[in-house]
Amino acid sequence: MKREDIEHLAKLSRIALSDAEADSLAGDISKILAYVGDIEKATGAAAPEKKVGPLNTVMREDGEPHESGIYTDALLKAAPERQGPYVKVKKILGDKTDRT
Amino acid sequence: MTIRELRKKFVEGTYTPTDAYRDMRAAIDAKNPDLNAFIDVYDDAEAAAKAATQRYATEGENAPALLGMPLAVKNNILIEGKRATAASKMLKNYIAPYDATIIARLKAEGPVIMGATNLDEFAMGSSTENSAFGPTKNPVDPTRVPGGSSGGSAAAVKMGAAVAALGTDTGGSVRLPASFCGLVGYKPTYGKNSRHGLIALGSSLDQAGTFTNSVADAELLEKVMGGKDRFDATSVGEDTYPAVALKDRYRIGVPRDFLTEGMDADVLAAFEESIAALVRAGHEVVDVSMPHMKNGLAAYYIVLPAEISSNLARYDGVRFGLHVSGDTLLDDYLKTRAEGFGPEVKRRILLGTYVLSAGYYDAYYGKAELMRSLMREELDHVFSDVDLIMTPTAPTPAFKLGEKSDPLSMYLADIFTVPVNLTGVPAISIPEREVVRDGISLPVGVQYIAPHAGDERLFDFGKKTYDATKGLA
After folding, report:
1. Distances (CA, A) of B405 to A13, A14, B356
2. DSSP result, B222-248
3. Suppose B333 and one of A14, B419, B458, B463 were both cysteines; which one would form an S-S bond, judging by CB atoms 3.0 to 4.6 Å apart?
4. Residue range B292-301, pLDDT digits in tens
């Protein structure tokens, strides 16, 4: 794993890294990948299964909503910035930042 | 001290919840500055203890089962109105807006919550050293770690600050600290306890569990907490799995070919003594072959980081938690996450992002999920022959603070516990033996694993073999 690979992963993960952090992560992640990479041999030729677990998707009727707005204040109390009943964020449209 | 013993005294009035609160709070005030088991200590526990004492005076044995019992709760479990930090700078000032389902169910039985305990940040770790609030030390030997990630809860019970404590177990985070601190540590069948109100780590693996001084206490707490919850679609009901029978004598399998990886010779010798004791007590112990078990750790460190990278995407500084402002919204994300997360969290998020990326998904995540299926099949096959499986809980006793600086060597502490979470079966760590290091006796646990929904079998077996011999029944 090269420094630029780590920087790309950090960008995808939305985490700014210092140079020292990127160098240290490149070493650690390479070692961990070498260890977990054995899984390829261990599973042999069997094709990957899509099933996540022994349990099936649980469905329910869409109904019984709680009264609108009763939790709004409790939840918004945790928001860093709010405006009335909304969470406030910086402008998104017109932002020219690279969004890869 | 067990919940059963306290209950008897509370009902008789020879020792009251107020007395218990006072003694346990004294233990916290005396020992916590050094051991650092608690992130927050709750002063309102005193009033709750006094109210409980009043209720015993009028209600006696009709009082709720857990009335006045001093408990400690890992700080990644939500308690309404209290801080839920997950030991991260990201959530340092986050106040829980509601109770986790397991907390709401416990509260209905009237316990006294002494405080919130320390953990590895977001429960990522095996030693409770990766905390934004500093490491927790092991009460048995403070130069050693208590295990992790629920190390604060284990230390709280061991230091006499609570009669029992809640933890969460994603890959061994209850069983490992229980082994290192000499307690009973129980991880339920996946879905038995609702995950509603737990700060998510790996959603297909996480389960809340308990630290207690007896198996009967673990059973008592689970009866209160467990069961289907409308707020967690993955919670299981009584009829999800086939019933698992209780027996007078159990047939127990030992996966011997698996007990090699980093195995300490003294721990292995202690484990052999446990086997001999079971045989003397009339149980049958046989060797079983489980070649896939050793691949569990590799599969775990693919599946878990993958789920982490997804679950922790929510910490973006917008709706709750830390917010660091930049020039643009993207800058806000980058800076908030850079400042809020510690090194192990960043490592796992990046690793998870890598194994889920196009081109690598099939080779890593796909193969890891396939290994999970193979491990489940292997387990089903073995459980067609034996009632329980036993392994040491960990390959070593508690290690020294700072001893494992390399992430991979830390991960190996969980080699025997992660297969249980990957397959969703229940397990319990029982503190059966000790090994001596530097003149100090350090506890080591034995892990017993049951089939899906075999939680009652674990309790039945543990009460017969452990509680009965320790005079805790």
Report:
1. 25, 26, 27
2. HHHH-S-BTTBTT---TTSS------S
3. A14
4. 999 999 999 9
For B368-379, the pLDDT digits (tens) are 999 999 999 999
Q: Quick one: B390 exposed, middle or buried, by C-beta within 10 A (0-12, 13-18, 19+)? A: buried
Asked if A89 lies within 8 A of B234 by C-beta distance, the reply is no
Q: Which of B299, B319, B323 sits opposite A39 (nearest CB)?
A: B299
pLDDT interval class at B404 (50, 70, 90) = very high
Helix and strand numbers (H, E) in chain B are 15, 11
* Distance from C-alpha of A43 to C-alpha of B370, rounded to nearest angstrom: 7
Is B127 a catalytic site residue? no
* pLDDT over 60 at A95, yes or no: no
* pTM for the whole structure: 0.96
> Could you read off the pLDDT of B25-74 as tens digits, one per residue?
999 999 999 999 999 999 999 999 999 999 999 999 999 999 999 999 99
Burial class, A4, CB count within 10 angstroms (exposed 0-12 / middle 13-18 / buried 19+): exposed
Token digits of residue B277: 């004791």
What local confidence, expressed as pLDDT, does residue A47 receive? 62
B316/B320 Cα distance (integer angstroms) = 8
Q: Which of B126, B131, B153, B173 is catalytic?
A: B173
Quick check: B337 contacting A, CB < 8 Å? yes
Does the annotation mark B74 as catalytic? yes
The CA-atom distances, in angstroms, between B52 and each of A61, B21, B364, B460 are: 41, 11, 53, 30
Backbone angles phi, psi at B375, to 5 degrees: -65, -40
pLDDT over threshold 90, residue A43: no
A98 phi and psi angles, rounded to 5 deg: -60, 125
pLDDT-based confidence at residue B410 (cuts at 50, 70, 90) = very high
Q: How far is CA A93 from CA A15, A90, A97, A100, in A?
A: 22, 10, 10, 16
Which letter, b or e, does each residue of B358-370 get, where b requires 16 or more Cβ atoms within 10 Å of its Cβ? eeeeeebbbbbbb
**Around A53, how many Cα atoms within 13 Å sit in the side-chain half-sphere?**
17
Query: What's the Cα-to-Cα distance from A99 to each of A14, B328, B352, B389, rounded to whole Å?
Result: 10, 12, 20, 50
Average pLDDT over residues B241-265: 94
Residue B422 has which token pair? 């990957």
Verify whether the Cβ–Cβ distance B353 to A13 is below 8 Å. Answer: yes
Amino acid, single-letter form, for residue B308 = I
Q: Are B69 and B45 in contact (CB under 8 A)?
A: no
Residue B242 touches chain A, beta carbons under 8 Å: no
Dist. CA B5–CA A99, nearest whole Å: 61
Quick check: B370 and A79 CB within 8 A? no
Burial class (CB in 10 A: 0-12, 13-18, 19+), B95: middle
CB burial class (10 A; 0-12, 13-18, 19+) of residue A12? middle
- Kindly indicate the confidence band of residue A55, based on its pLDDT and cuts at 50, 70 and 90: low
**Tokens representing residue B440 in the block:** 């100090």
